[in-house]
Design brief:
By secondary structure, the protein is of the alpha+beta class. The chain is about 15% helix and about 45% strand. A hairpin with a 3-residue loop joins strand 4 and strand 5. The protein starts with a helix and ends with a strand. The protein is built from 1 helix and 15 strands; from the N terminus they run H-E-E-E-E-E-E-E-E-E-E-E-E-E-E-E. It is globular, with a radius of gyration of 20 Å. It has a 15-stranded mixed beta sheet that branches.
């Protein structure tokens, strides 16, 4: 009798967890086009939210954390400028004009991407850092998962533990950090 009660309680708890996951995951990935991303910072000159078409710029002594819809977060380092170009369910894009960001995304591959001039870096489920100079060059460092970096149709997969240097015209070769 106790075994039946314990089994019933375990099955009920498991069913409740599965139901919660089935409801939570689709809700987490839904995002309307007009919604803004929340910005968390202690700097007074930085706005509290970032909408489509708006630019965020941090000064030499400022940094911020942006909640990327409900799919992750991104740290914006000092001396960085970025613009939110599109945000909707399944498609979140911004442009890194110059500076450095660190992103951690929990979403299906391809939902989050960063444009840097003629190139685009698309998250394939990971955590990564990215920097860009005014002349269009930069570097990507992937700490977990993978990213896809493309320039004029040339696509390069960058795995965890690798760096990729790129210019405005072309993508480099991913190199393992410990190589």
């Amino acid at each position: 009798r106790r075994w039946r009660q314990a089994s019933f309680a375990a099955v009920t708890a498991l069913a409740a967890c599965l139901l919660g996951i089935v409801i939570w995951v689709p809700w987490r990935l839904q995002w309307s086009e007009s919604r803004q991303w929340v910005i968390e910072t202690k700097a007074h000159a930085i706005p509290e939210a970032l909408g489509v078409g708006q630019t965020l710029a941090t000064a030499a002594t400022q940094s911020a954390t942006i909640r990327v819809a409900r799919i992750g977060h991104m740290e914006v380092m000092p001396n960085t400028r970025l613009r939110l170009s599109d945000t909707r369910t399944g498609h979140h894009r911004l442009e890194l004009l110059e500076g450095r960001i660190r992103a951690r995304i929990w979403a299906p591959p391809g939902q989050f991407g960063i444009a840097t001039g003629a190139s685009e870096t698309v998250d394939l489920g990971c955590a990564f850092e990215m920097s860009r100079t005014r002349d269009g060059g930069g570097r990507i460092h992937v700490t977990s998962g993978w990213v896809m970096h493309s320039v004029d149709g040339q696509e390069t997969l960058v795995p965890a533990g690798s760096d990729l240097d790129f210019t405005r015209e072309r993508s480099g070769i991913p190199l393992a950090v410990n190589a």
